[in-house]
Amino acid sequence: ATLPPGKYTFRVQATHGSKSESSTRSLSIIILPPWWQSIIAYIVYTVCIILIVVGTILWYKRRKEKQLEERQKLFEIEKEKELYESKVDFFTEIAHEVRTPLTLINGPLEAIEEMEIQEPKMKKYISVMVQNTKRLLELTGQLLDFQKIGANKLTMKFESVDITELLAGIVARFEVTFSLNRKELQLKSTDEQVWAAVDKEAITKILSNLLNNALKYASQNVLVELEKGEDSFTIRVTSDGNKIPAEVSQYIFEPFYQVDRKEKPRNGVGIGLSLARSLASLHKGTIYLDTRQENNMFVLTIPLNMEGIKQENNKAIQKDIVELDEHTPVTADMYGYTLLLVEDNESMLTFILERLQENFTVETAMNGVEALEILRSSHIDLIISDIMMPVMDGYQLCKEVKSDMELSHIPIIFLTAKNDIDSKINSLKYGAEAYVEKPFSFNYLKEQVLSLLDNRRREREAFAKRPFFSVNNMQMNKADEEFMNKVIKVIEDNITDDNFGVERMADILCMSRSSLLRKIKTLFNLSPLDFIRLIKLKKAAEFIQEGKYRIGDICYMVGINSPSYFSKLFLKQFGMTPKDFEKQYQSGKQIIITQEIKNVEAGEGTK
């Protein structure tokens, strides 16, 4: 058997019989334990256990500290995000509030600038005020764009743009400002055209921010360079002056960050470069500060062609519809337009009213309810309305107008400080024809009004003078288009009846005679009888085009019982006799510009 470790005594004595032969001898024997049971081993075990316990405690403590740090960091991030969002909301709210008074400053300044001022010093003062008003407008626009980018609501309109020409125009606009600040701005560009698919306004904002930044901090010289690569173009803006430290180059594109420069006052809110970077990213491009250079150099690189971008060629519809008397200038007082201005801000209402009254007759209302009362008691050609109003807002007013058969033809322009994409989409949904943001140029507003009204006048003239120009080619809302097609069908169904008149047509349409008269008058500037006669003549032109009938028979087919009277009416309406019309059509000469009609039909998608 194996003895356990320990100290043993081995005794030995020799005996013979009952007598001892010798004395007892003893031997001490020590059996050592195996090494893993030795004292040293147990000491090591104890030390290891202590280390494990201490290590576990330290690990647990460190883990808790790390969790606490992460929570603290997360809290700081949330706090920073909350602070960032509060800053954006604060500045955005200020921008919205500033837009209305800014309009009241910008409008009169524009009017004064257009006057012939003889005093050079006064002209200079006015120019400075206009320039700084535009700068303030630009800053408010940047703040609103910045909010849209954060909310992923900024839409880009990509088109093919000559970057060489665009850059030259931007630099030219800044040359006067640089000169007034006694600084030199130079452009070094390529001679060839550099075409790229970009959002023109976004690129303008990026470069304007870079040049404004250079203007503030450059000592004397700023150089702008354009270089074309194989698949991208690069713009470098280099300025002298104190160099931006390399250690802060990664932060200068962060929102609200400003470089601390003792020799320069800290102006601005610190979003210009951040906005520039965001806009560059939306182009799949980059912008950075090249710290390797001796001077401060900002480098912008944008792809020439971005995959998936479809170039849109949105031409103004009014250019495609008709070409009547282009040499004759169109002014509002030629036609006596009457406008309804709906605005709850008295100062804004008074200012716009004074300017509009130079060309138009203007009725005013402070809210949608007052506006509807005026619309139902007066003849109004166009409505200009704010959106945010008490009692009834602009959206509800628009909805009421477009759902009323007697009012639905009246175009509506929203004039508002709300410039977010949702407001614009809602305006289209409710049926508004145009959307003008505050602060606005009064000349732009006036031209927008004239464009809408005069385009409708041209459409009416084209409908009356051109045999194949139909209601479907006109810019009507869906309700008016359906109504007029219904009216025309009623006339065509009764076209052979020479006694068919207004009373009968009103009965079939379930309308009062006065309502029918007013609707046709406002849409076509014709009485119902004249409109019936016009539809008969248009139908006669269709029969002549078909070439199946004699002209002598066609007049009876459209309910006109005198061939000579029919010929006289046709000549007066379309500028040629039925026989001349037949000859020219049969000889292959196109009387109607078919491409024009196609353009108008293509424009129907904007309704």
TrEMBL record:
Membrane-crossing segments per the record: 39-60
Residue ranges of every copy of the Histidine kinase domain listed in the record: 93-306
Catalytic activity: ATP + protein L-histidine = ADP + protein N-phospho-L-histidine
Domain of life of the organism encoding this protein: Bacteria
Root EC class: transferase
Listed SUPFAM superfamilies: ATPase domain of HSP90 chaperone/DNA topoisomerase II/histidine kinase, CheY-like, Homeodomain-like, Homodimeric domain of signal transducing histidine kinase
Residue intervals of the Response regulatory domain: 338-453
Alphabetized UniProt keyword annotations: DNA-binding, Membrane, Phosphoprotein, Transcription, Transcription regulation, Transmembrane, Transmembrane helix
EC number: 2.7.13.3
All residue ranges annotated as the HTH araC/xylS-type domain in the record: 485-584
Record GO terms (molecular function): DNA-binding transcription factor activity; phosphorelay sensor kinase activity; sequence-specific DNA binding
4-aspartylphosphate carried by residues: 386
Pfam families assigned: HATPase_c (PF02518), HisKA (PF00512), HTH_18 (PF12833), Response_reg (PF00072)
Gene3D superfamilies per record: 1.10.287.130, 3.40.50.2300, Histidine kinase-like ATPase, C-terminal domain, Homeodomain-like, Immunoglobulins
Entry keyword annotation includes Transferase: no
Protein name: histidine kinase
Organism of derivation: Bacteroides thetaiotaomicron
